[in-house]
Each structure stands twice: as C-alpha cells, then as structure tokens.
Amino acid sequence: MFLRLLSDVRWQATHPKWRRMTCSRRSTSSTAEPAPVPLPAEAQVVICGGGIMGTSVAYHLSKMGWKDVVLLEQGRLAAGTTRFSAGIVSTARHLSVELKMADYSNKLYQQLEQETGVSTGYVKTGSISLAQTQDRLISLKRIASSLNVMGIPCEIITPKQVAQLHPLINIHDLVGAMYVPEDALVSSANVSLALATAASRNGVQIHERTSVSHVSIQKGRVTGVETDRGQIKCQYFVNCAGQWAYELGHSGKEPVHIPLHACEHFYLLTHPLKEPLASNLPTIVDPDGRIYIRNWQGGILSGGFEKNPKPLFTEGRNQLEIQNLQEDWDHFEPLLSALLRRMPDLEALQIMQLVNCPESFTPDMRCIMGESPTVRGYFVLAGMNSAGISYGGGAGKYLAEWMVNGYPSENVWPLDLKRFGTLQSSRTFLRHRVMEVMPLMCDLKVPRWDFQTGRQLRTSPLYDRLDAQGARWMEKHGFERVKYFVPPGTDLLDLEQSKTFYKPDWFDIVGSEVKCCKEAVCVIDMSSFTKFEISSTGDEALENLQYLFSNDLDVPVGHVVHTGMLNEKGGYENDCSIARLSKRSFFMISPTDQQVHCWTWLKNRLPDDSNLTLEDVTWKYTALNLIGPRAVDVLSELSYAPMTPEHFPSLFCKEMSVGYANGIRVMSITHTGEPGFVLYIPIEYALHVYNEVMNMGQKYGIRNAGYYALRSLRIEKFFAFWGQDLDAFTTPMECGREFQVKLEKGTEFIGQEALLEQKQNGVYKRFTMFILEDHDTDTDLWPWWGEPIFRNGRYVGKTTSSAYSYTLERHVCLGFVHHFDEKTGEELVVTADFINNGDYAIDIAGQRFQAKAKLYPFSSLFTQRRRKDEEELSGYQRE
Amino acid sequence: MPAPAHLFPLIRNCEISRICSTVCYCHHKHLCCLSSHFAHSHFRCAPQKKFAALYRPKENFNHFIHARDYTSTPQRFYLTPPQVNSILKANEYSFKVPEFDGKNVSSVLGFDSNQLPANAPIEDRRSAATCLQTRGMLLGVFDGHAGCACAQAVSERLFYYIAVSLLPHETLLEIENAVESGRALLPILQWHKHPNDYFSKEASKLYFNSLRTYWQELIDLNSGETTDVKEALVNAFKRLDNDISLEAQVGDPNSFLNYLVLRVAFSGATACVAHVDGVDLHVANTGDSRAVLGVQEEDGSWSAVNLSYDHNAQNEHEVKRVRKEHPKSEEKNVVKQDRLLGLLMPFRAFGDVKFKWSIDLQKRVIESGPDQLNDNEYTKFIPPNYHTPPYLTAEPEVIHHKLRPQDKFLILATDGLWETMHRQDVARIVGEYLTGVHHQQPIAVGGYKVTLGQMHGLLAERRARISSVFEDQNAATHLIRHAVGNNEFGTVDHDRLSKMLSLPEELARMYRDDITIIVVQFNSHVIGACQNGEL
C-alpha cells in the first residue's frame, strides 16, 4: 500500500501513447488482457533493466541521437530497488567523478518535470551532514572544499545553525555540520518513469514483462538478446539489471563478470507527526549514527547502514523475492536507537512500516560502468552502492556518451568495469567484501585505508617471509603489497585507532626506509605489476607496438623504453616500461590495476594474426626492486658481473644469473628515480634470489622496504603514476613528458595528431609539483589527493597525489593547474610563465597552505645525475 | 502475527508494585499450620530462624508488615549487572565427563548445577557422583524443610546407600574384608562437589557404621540375583530413612552428635535422584522436586517430558494412597488444605519423624534429648489428628526411561524452580541455551499502532535477552536468571532481577523459594550408538 504512495504512479493516465506500447500493466485486475506489443526483430541497442539506470541510459542515448533502442524490463518499470529507494539526491561525494554525476543528476531531475510533464516529486530541501567528532568534521570540510570549487553551494555550519534549519534535531553531541542547500528529494520511481517517458517520445521502445535469458555473443561481440518473448538482434547490449546484473552476466556461454552483491537495506516509514513535517525540511545525514533521515509525507523516512549487514541472494534468486523480504526489527535496533538519539521527540511517532529493500554493493564502494573487457558491445551500468538516485542521471549520461562517442566526457576510470577482473567475481569474495563495504558507507574515510576482507588472494612467493619480518600489507587488484615493515619491538596503533587525517603512526618507520633507499640499498617486492610479453615471428610485434605506443620502440635489444599507451586524444590509457628482449619480442610492465584494461586495449587493437602472440606473464615472475646507491654492489657481487653504469647503463635490460639462479631479467629502472635495479625472477627462484640478495646485502646495510617509501621517493622526484596522476584525459605534453613521445619516429601512432596539435597550440592544463611552505607536518592536516589548488586566490585545479618528502622535509603535492579566464571561465592555454608567476595555496579541509609551484624536480638536491631519465629531463628543461 | 500484548511493555515500570501486591500467599509451603486458632494458642513466641517454618499465612504477612515498619520505607537496593552475576554465579558448578574414561563410554556429556538461596541458610542440597564399582552416574537434588539438617544428611549419605545396593555380592565381600582387616577400602563414589557443598566430619564414623551394617545385611541376604536398579533405589531410600530414624532413637554418647541425629530426624527432606547408565535412566523421587527430560523434536523445537511424579496434594494418586493407608475416620484430616495432616506439603520425605513415630516415641526421645530440643516449640509440637502413624514414607517412585538420541538433557530441580516456571518453558530455555539457537519470534508491526519509543523499548529488551544467554556459562545459572528475572514477556528484566536478589534476608523467602538445579547433558552420539547396539 505504502509503495503505491511512495511512487505515486500517475504516468499511466498522462501518457496514453506509451500505454499502448507497453504490455498489460493491469493484468491482475483486467480479464481481457490486450496482447502485448511484439518485440522488434532488430535494434541497435537493447537495454536490460527498467530501473533508474536503464531508463537514464535510454533517455541519454535517445537524446544523443541513438533512437533505435529497446528497453526490456522483466517486471514493471521502476519496480526493483529503484521503487524502494529513499529518493535522496545528495551531491556530498568524496570522488570527483561521483560528485559530478550527482550534480548533473540533480540538475537533470530539477527540470525533468517541465520537460516530460511527469511529476517527479522534486523538492529542493537541502541536506545537512552532521559531525559528532572532529575527524568527521574534517571529512565534511574536505567534501565542502570540493563542492565549493565545483560551484555547488555548500557551507560548514555550527550546531546552533543546524538547530535553526531543522526543529527536531538534538545538537548536544554535535561539533559541526555541512549544509548543502541544493540537495533534493525526488520520488525515485517517478523520476525513472519520467526518463522512460521522455525516452519513448524520442523513439525508444519499452517492453515490460519481458525478461532477458541471455545475450548472444559471436566472435567476442554482442549479436543479439534472447528473451522469454523471442529474440532481438542487436549490436549493443546494456546490462542495467541492478542486483541481478551479476547473474545476467553469467547467464550466457561467455560470462561477463560484474562484481556486485546484494545486501538487505532497511528504512523506516512513519505516520505524519501531529504537526506534519514540511516537505522542504532538509534531509539529515548522521554518519556517526549511521543513519539518514528525510521528511516523508509529513512523517519521516529513516534508514541507515548498519555495522553488520545481511548479504542476500548469494546463490542467486528470482526477482519476485524482492517483494517479500522480511522486516527485521532486531537488526534495525541500533539504527532506531541512533534515530531516537538524534531526534528524541519522535518517541511518540507511530510506525508505518519497516521497509527491507535489497541494495547492490561493489567490492570498492564505487559503481560499475563501461564495456565488458571480453565482449565488445556489452555495456554495464550497475552496482550503485545505495546511491542510484544520486548517480542515475550522470551515470546514464556518461555511459551513453561512452557508447556513442567511444568515450565519456569525464575520466571514469574509477568506475570502469575493467578495474575488476575475474578474481573479484567469486561469490564468496563478494559476499564477504560487501559486508565490509556497506558499513563503510558511514565510516570515516581516511587516507590510506585498506579493505580487510577478501585478502591474501594473490600473493608473492615471498609473502610469508616478508610477513614474518613485520610487513604490513595493502591490497591492489587482489594482490598483497607491503606498505612498510614494522621493526621488531615497535608497536603501531590498531586499525581503528590508526585512522587519522594527521601525521600517521608509521611516519618514522617509512622515514627510515626512505633513508636506507637514499644511502644504502632496499628491497621492495613489486611482483604485483602487470607483465605482458609480446612477440612475433616476423616484425609484426614491433610494427604494432610502434603504432600503439607513443615512444620509439625500435631501440637496440636490451634497452628499456618508458612510454605511454595513448588514446586518439593523446591521453594516457596506460603508462608502461617496455624492454626489448630480442628483435621480435618485448616485455611490458604496467601498473597492477592495468591487468584487465591494458589486455583489452591491446587485444582489441592488435590484428588477429597467428604470428603475433600476446601473453600475460604476470604470474610467472616475482619482481624485486633493489633501490639505492649500493644496489650496484649487491648485484655485482651476486652475479660476478660488473654492474656499474659503464657496463650496465640506465634503462637497460639483461638476462643474467643471480646466485645459483639463471635467467633473471635485470632492468636498470626503479620506478622512483633513484639508482637501482628491478629483478624479474621466475617464481621458483624467488625465494633463493631473495635470500641471496638479503645475505649479500647485509654488509651494505640492506633492508626491506614497502610501497609507502616508494611513493614518497617517486613523488618527491615528480614521477607521475598512472591511475593516480595520469588518466585518459592527460597527455604526455601536459605532464612534461614530451621526451617520451617521438612524434617523428617515422611511423604513425595512436594519439599522434592530437599531440601534434597540442604541441602547436599549447596545453590547457599542466602537471605541477607543489611544495607546501607553511605546513607543519606534526600538527597540520596532511594533504591526501583531490585538494583544490588556488593561484592568486583563484581555483585552478586539484591535486592528484601527495607525500611527505623526507629529503625536502616538506610535503609535496602533485596536481594539474588550469588557466580559467577570469571573466568567462573559459579554459586558456597554460604556459610555463603562467605556472611560474603565481602565488599558490593548497586547500586542505578548508585551510589554505602556501605552496611553491615547480615544473621540474629538484634534480640538484638529489645524488648523481647519471640516470638517463634525468638527462632527458634536463634536456627538456633547456628547451 | 504476535499478540499485541507482546509488543508493548507498557507496564514495565509498575512491576514491582504488582509483585508486592500479590505476595500475600505463603511461600512456606512445606509446613503450614492448620488453623488460626491453633496457631494462636501455641505459637506466640518469636520464631527462630531454623525452625521458623510453622507460621500461618496471616502471621507471615504481619511479619512482613513488621519488617517494613522498622526499615521505614521498602528500600530498593539497586544491583549492577556484575553484582547480579556474582550473586547468581556464587554456587554454580560444572562438570564435564570424559566421553571415554578408559573403561566405559559415557552417555552423559556433563552437568551444570547451581543453587540460589532464599532461606538463610539455604535448605536445599545437591549431590553428584560417579559410581566407581558399578557403571553409571548419580545426580540428585534435596529440598529440606524445618531446617537443612536432614537434606544435608541425605545429600551425604543417600548415594552411598544406592551404590552399595547396586554392588554385586563379590564386591561387597571384598569391601567388608578390607574393612575387617583394616585394609584400604575400594572407593565407591567419586564426588563432583562445589566448594560450598560440605560433608559433616563429625558424623562420618556414625554414618559409616550404619552403612556397614547395611552392606553386611546385604551380604547375609545374598539373593544371588543381579541387582535391579529400580529395586536398589527403593531399598536405598527406605534403608537410609530407617537408619536416620534409628540413629535418632538410639542417640549418641557424643552430645554434639546426639543433637545432630535428632535434628536430622526431626527435620525433613525430599529427594529426586537420577541414575544414568548408558541408555538406562532411572529417576527415583520422593517428594515434590521434579525431573524433566528435554526432548528436541524433529523441527528443532523443545518439549518437556516428566520423569517423576510430584508427591503432593496436586497428585490424585498420592492423595488416594495416603488416605488408603489410614482408617476411614481420618479421611478428612489426613489431607487437609492440600497438606499432609494440614501441615506438610510433600507427601513423601526423609526424616520428619514427627509424621512417622508414635506420639510416645516422640515424647520419649524429646524428653531424653538435649535441652535445645526440649526448648524448641516445633519439635515438641505433635501434629493434630495424629492417630495412626506413620503418615509419611521415604519410599521413592522410580521411573525407568530408555534414552533416545532426541533426549538432550535432564533437569533435576527443587520446587523453587517449578513454581515459577512451566516445564515447557524450562525445556525451551535450556534447549536454546545448550544449542545456542534462539527462536525469537520476529517482530512484525502489521496493522498495530506502535510508536518508535515503544518499539525501541521492546527491541532493547529482546537484545538484553540474547545477551543474558552469553553472560552465563552454566545452564543452571541461566535457568535461575530466567526463573527469578523473567517479566511478563518471558524476557529477563534486569530491574526485576536486581530487586529480587537485593531483598533483605527476612523478606527473600516471601518472594521466592530456594532454587536448586542440575542440568545433565546427554551425548546423543553415544546414545544413538548404544541404541544401534554398537556399544
């Protein structure tokens, strides 16, 4: 009954046209059932799922001119999670792309009623996020900084101001709050129906009560869709099946892994108050109490994200069960307590219902968007982590752009389906991980946070050895990597207590690891990096790689080349090091999370040629990174080969023996700008080589180190990392890496034109290094990433990564500087002069710190200038 | 759909007042005076604690009022949860039986026992022991009245009488020869005792001699037949009661012992004893303690099966039996106001020679007895309408039960438990406790009018109920927590627990009786294997 009230479905009457097209919606009441409209035999796009996502994709596709679209819904439109949604449109998001999606959605929904004539229930209520602790307030201030530079009104307010905005709130335990006045409430089902209405006016065909059994795939491409009402041939399929997306992905012969899992999600509906609440009363989010509260028909709607979620449908179920989920009051008890603590006056308010609606969650709390890595034309938009309404508009727009233009207008890598592989698709993994993810919705988001579930999946053969030596681990793409080594006798804080926005407890530990890298030698296990081998019988490998990569790969055998794998716009799809092992074979090292993306990119672009082989050898090698001035000595003693720069120059690769083990690929790169080598060791030799290195290294003061030390080293050297600093919207020109592009290498390559144009016209953003000036490492908030950069008091961009430089004894932030026209806001060319002549400040949670901008690293501060990178860098500098 | 009444703890705050208003009935069930007239004429003296069992209800009430007078206001002592726990757990005891002790596989996993005093000192006793010369385990609860002396003696001695009754002829001979030649005795029982469970050292020689006389008679009688457990239990009960009676008649040169045996004989005790040997479970019961078997049904729910009959006025067979044993003329007076001779609640008991001896014998023993006995109003008092003694017997009713795999546990408890809780609830609470599964009815609001505050209160209680399970490591403690702390929703209410446990000594007995519980857990695997003839 209440569902009726909630969705307030009125679209049937107002849109008779559409009613004709859809099959009987009233099958239960009317006996004379009109025959359903037959399915078309063919369509360009078939969308599965009539919730907010499916209708939004259909809406945006049709707006962009793709009209041959069919939307299939197994039940009724907006009948799944969408119908049960709380209808809160909130722009307070941590991730910039999520923030942009939510902002777009808000603006879209606001005008949707006018556009379609369908009432959406849109009310601009604003939202108040409460902070019970100082840490929470810092977290809110960080979001507020992001919102403000995006032009979204937002302010940090005092508890007293909270009380003025909302009459029922108990403010005694609050330290502050964030007020976002433009956040809104909608009727989620009606928004979905409005989008469907607009789409169908644009020519999209909508068929309810039609379920997709599987997607037909031929030669790795979508060819059609099998439904319970027949087949539709199509070029594109969009899986917007929400919590059923995983099952649908696995229904065909070639599975598409969509890692999401449903959890029960509860919210409470009450009868109206004696004095009914105003419909424009702000929505309250109390993350410390794990609850949200909105006004609902004069009463309230309040739900939350409990600490002990109940995952469900692990084995997969049919859709009907969503209707019959049990209310679980005992489970809801902590949230009810939090609600009554926040609004004590509600004690006498009468309960209407406790709603149990399943929500789908993903392994990293971010939604899943994009094309399947294995099946071309198979797109996915699902896994909204309970923010489907907030993201619905923006996500649908980005996916439509992706399909129509080949790429969305924003960097969506954080949401890309290809960030996952098959390894995140285990049901057990998903079940365990979502039980951690759901409580995280309300947990404090602090820097350097690692998931605790689904761990120890991929490990190096040295895992146990390193663990026994005090290694603390983080996880990337399922692979365990060392953060740092806790020396014996040192106690660090336990996980929960170590959460901080300030100086972390491992500060001195990493400091000593960095020192050792600078002065002696350290070993870092870097086995997680993605490693491919590309070889051919003829020259195909070289020819193709020359086309796919921007740097010149036609180098003598044994040389290593740093190069970008660029897209047509010159942006980085991948940033890698490629060693030429022989005339016809290449060894390619990419970041860990590139395993799926890079593979797909290469597979889709390499010719289907039996002479050309691409192999993923990630699992075959253990990589040990020997960093430091004494690495030379350790290695030459172990191999009885001279390793000095004269014999083993920088960016060089050679197979040699280390200890008893033969066939170790030694490369003179360290990914940090420090001297040293990376050893690629066939895994069965890993333990032997590690032992040999550690034994031999003892007299040179060798020690283990972790990724935090590596990170500090590379950031103080101004090394950009793909996935953090570099993305598909960043070109080599924009980050001072022109030297890695050979525009005149004699062959064409992807992105060449765009880069040529950029070279002529200049760049519109520039990767810059900032050294914080008046920042006290011990007492001030630490930068993380995503902090706004101000030049002469005006916003010019955001940071992408930061670290404490133990050499400079200062914080270093890396980020992009734009040049917005002061009047029009238009983006202008960024010149070196523009960068150099400005006073900069970095905004950390609302507090601005003076920063010095630099376009080149402090080469003079660091040891020898013998690395090729730097010679090239300095050469570039002279230009 | 649960009843709406279960949804709203509307009367949570007025519980204690309700309890107070309903306490006018007498909890001193075992002994109670016949008529107000009689009581007034004979019992004006200030009651002594140990023999304070003979008030009539009205006086009881007066006493209560009186107590209130000098404490000025009914004081409410609030106990914190840890204080409550320390009271509840003071007497708890657990014993785990090794599944295979080198000789036998045991069908008993172990037992939990506990007692909560209401009388000061407590008049309940408990015993548990493993038979060493025969197979099997003995467990028993003993509810004393008119003092604890008899219950104490029975708890010390009864199992020896049972064990001896069960012993084969050769073993008896062996033991007798050992005693004769001053050699070390074969141990007969291995006791499992809580540190607070004591044996009286002074009487051990006397008790031993009586026991030795018993086994000597058994040796002389040598029937040659293998001993039947049922018969052995009956014989042991009767023999012990007989010995208690004889010892009191004969007396002892030691004045302390002399007084002791008289106190034992003049006080009384019921006994409920279980003997478990493999799948054979025998329960011998005398009086109104009770043995209940916890059975798990196929659907996982719990049901209770009685393994004893209460010997009191609620048991028609008992009433008939007692009436039949006495002339028609006494029919009206033998059972009066649901009590034996209008005085005693249990219809069978150890001791209580006032209901067994002739008036002459009673007078003679008292007169020749020590002064303390002579000065005591209770002992001197002869029950009214006392014409054809004995009116009371210690002979037990024995029920034999073949254990099945679905029989998960046995609860032996004194009437202090059974008068507060129904056996079905007891079985469910213990069953859920032992399996760790809690069949809480889910709450559904449905069409009822419930406010957020009411729901919040209800949920908090339900959570407390679950958490109370995890507080207890002992099933008997858990049961006592429920027996004392349950509110009208069947959940443990801390406030109520706190109030019940903080009652002053002189008031405690009015709200509750001594509670003694033994929960024996069975090993279903062993029982299943026994059934299939594998063992």
Question: Would you summarize the structure shown here?
Answer:
Chain A: Belongs to the GcvT family. Chain A: It comes from Columba livia (Rock dove). The complex is a heterodimer of chains A (879) and B (535). By secondary structure, chain A is an alpha+beta fold.
% residues in beta strands of chain B: 15-25%
Q: Helicity level of chain A, as a percent range?
A: 25-40%
- What is CATH's topology name of chain B? Phosphatase 2c, domain 1
- DSSP strand content of chain A: 25-35%
Rounded to the nearest angstrom, the distance between the terminal CA atoms of chain B is 47 Å
Number of E strands of chain B: 15
What's the Cα radius of gyration of chain A? Answer: 28 Å
Subcellular location (chain A): Mitochondrion matrix
Domain Rhodanese (chain A): 45-85
Organism (chain A): Columba livia (Rock dove)
Keywords (chain A): Mitochondrion, Pyruvate, Transit peptide
What does this 3D model show about the protein?
The complex is a heterodimer of chains A (879) and B (535). Chain A is of the alpha+beta class and 879 residues long. In chain A, 27% of the residues lie in helices and 26% in strands. Chain A is built from 23 helices and 41 strands. In chain A, strands 5, 6, 7, 14, 15, 16, 17, 18 and 19 form a nine-stranded mixed β-sheet that branches. In chain A, a hairpin with a 4-residue loop joins strand 37 (794-805) and strand 38 (810-820). Mean pLDDT of chain A is 90; it is low at 1-32 and 860-879. Chain B is α+β, with helices and mostly antiparallel strands and 535 residues long. Chain B contains 21 helices and 15 strands. Chain B has helices at residues 15-21, 36-42, 57-70, 81-89, 149-166, 169-180, 204-221, 229-250, 255-266, 316-324, 331-334, 359-368, 371-375, 377-380, 415-418, 423-435, 452-471, 475-485, 494-501, 505-511, 524-531; strands spanning 93-96, 108-116, 124-131, 137-145, 189-191, 268-277, 280-286, 290-296, 302-306, 335-336, 339-340, 350-351, 397-402, 407-413, 515-522. In chain B, strand 6 (268-277) and strand 7 (280-286) form a beta hairpin.
